[in-house]
Amino acid sequence: MQAMKLSSVSLSDEFINQVKNEVTPHWGELGWVTYKRTYARWLPEKQRTENWDETVKRVVEGNVNLDPRLHEENVDPKVVDELTEEAKKLYKLIYGLAATPSGRNLWISGTSYEHRNGDALNNCWFIAVRPQPYGNSHIVHEYLKPDQPAVSMPYSFMFDQLMKGGGVGFSVTKENVHKIPMVDDKVNLTVIIDKNSESYEASLKMGAVDKDDWLKNHSLNDVQYYKSPDTREGWVISNAHLIDLHFDQTTPNHQRNLVLDMSEIRPKGAKIKGFGGTASGPMPLIEMLFDINDVLNTHVGQHLSAVDCTDIGNLIGKTVVAGNVRRSAELALGSADDEDFITMKQDKEKLYHHRWASNNSVAVDSNFDNYGPVADSIRHNGEPGIVNLELSRNYGRKIDGVQKGIDANVEGTNPCGEISLANGEPCNLFEVFPYVASQQGWDLHEAFRLGTRYSKRVTFSNYDWEVSRNVIEKNRRIGISMSGIQDWILSELGNRVVTGFEDTKDPETGKLVKKPLYDQRAVKQVDGLYQAVVAADKEYSDTLGCQPSVKHTTVKPSGTVAKLAGVSEGMHFHYAGYLIQRIRFQDTDPLLPALKACGYHIEPDVYTKNTMCVEFPIRAAHADSKEFASAGNVSIAEQFATQAFLQTYWSDNAVSCTVTFQKDEGDQIAPLMRQYRFTTKSTSLLPYAGNGFKQAPKEPIDEKTYESRVMEIHGNVETIFEKQNGNHDKKGVELVGQTDCEGGACPIK
């Protein structure tokens, strides 16, 4: 692993102050509030959280100093000068909110935590659920050799990355699950805890037993014993012991009695250094261990199914969520002909207990044609999504034609579906807002060039897992995204990208389909930007002496990051022209008095105790344009066509899109999936909710209501907040209900 040296590139206070005087950040209506409660880190020396200029300085310096040339024995002063100039450009780009790195980078880049755990810079990961060796990784098992395959490994990887704040996609397709050996024997699990632990009483209620009482009647020599240290790794290793003890190949002494000691795990509410937030205590872990043991014990003498493997992953995800700060994001990828997997969420008891923890999709190829059952399930449950692995392995952009094996090792995707990934690989994202960048006078080619170089440097982070280091070094995959696409196209061209449809015949079935017609000016624009990204990657790869990226571009769903700049999220249409956006805050959040003083409507959350719901009136860009369309009125056909446009001319990875559909459009789902089976790499759909439930995150309103609500608001939240708090806010305030990708996908931290 690369050893970090002191930063060689830094931005002066003089430069920062100059930018602050020249550039005004393009805050959206929710922008500054979202930033302050989501990405502003605590500064102990100043007893407050960061301001935006400080966050951007930390993030940019943290990234630029990943350049491997700065870690050589003798650093060339010219390299430092060149990177300092690049850092200045990046600072202006990000400070003005013409572009941002991923939410993970906004939170972690430039911190000591990043230096220890480079994995934390990547939003999401993928792992195949099959026996794999741990190799030279930071998780060490005394009972395993590094090259010994273990059933626990993918779950350890998943658990570890989720606790670092990353989302995880995992494959439980039949070809993976069939490689897992039969469960050999039952494990007798005992969890012990010392009376001195502050979690003693609560742990006993979860099934633990008193440590002293147990030791009076038992010997540690007769069991496999593990005392979990108060670390993330301790949680992971505890679970690995449990899983591996069920299989003979990882239990040569055939010991089936396992004792796990939770006495040292910090109590609920204790602060977590580095990553931030508060601890949950050992109780969720204890519950998870007993639940996973039950899954395995009930399958002694049998092979695990995709449903069983997903259940174990979901139980891990549920445990991570219980840690308060982290929003577990999982995508389970099963086989398209696995009916049990497709219908597993129909078991309501298990759904509410743990199966909610993943979005589920099925892997297909372009020959797959049984879309009827999939579409029917989507109409009722919004799942499963579709992931076409064949297209991902053999195509970049569709316009570039088949490139056999260009990405041959792809096995799945991240939870949001915008990046096709190989085993152990992460997504690596940077996002440009062309609508904002154009307004601020940026050359878009230069903006995307800077983003490309930013993401390339992330591939030189310190990665904990050998499987990840190997695939990252091979692929150097990046995902340069654009967001606010609908705003940009409408502003730039005066119309949407899909200008109409014409009748044509499906080349295979001969059935009549509606072929989309695209504005050729949009085709030229996005193709030119794609070429700029590829050229920038080649130039920088040559400079660094590393592999060019296997793929370069994507469209991420965005969400929290898009709120900063107030643009439409990824390729998605605005939810409505005018809406009430509801954001939830812990009732002790210091932002609440400032919001109240500004006249925002605040009321107790009807779903969660100690939580307040704040209403923000929002107007979408171009809401009054005749060409404006929202998720509430744009057709399902146009959304499919827009995703296909971006997959054809922009993204060589994939395009994340959650297509919204009205009730009367449900019968179009299967035909449209079939029509775009040779173009679209991943697809998910959800019914349009509108005003479907109380205190909905987004509630469409009319222009008159919007104007009325805006008239109630006065003053600037940032100014009032600083005045009320003397710019000294609270440390460790918990976040409520925030995700970097709306809809329960990639987490922000």
Q: Could you characterize what this model shows?
A:
The protein is globular and about 80 Å long. By secondary structure, the protein is of the alpha/beta class. The strands form seven sheets. The protein has a seven-stranded mixed beta sheet with strand order 4-5-10-11-12-23-22. Strands 7-6-9-8 form a four-stranded parallel beta sheet. Strands 20-21-19-24 form a four-stranded antiparallel beta sheet. Helix 26 (669-675) links the parallel strand 22 (658-661) and strand 23 (682-687).
Give a quick precis of the structure.
The protein is an alpha/beta fold and 749 residues long.
Labels describing this entry:
single chain; 749 residues; alpha/beta; seven-stranded mixed beta sheet; four-stranded parallel beta sheet; 15% strand; disordered N terminus; disordered C terminus
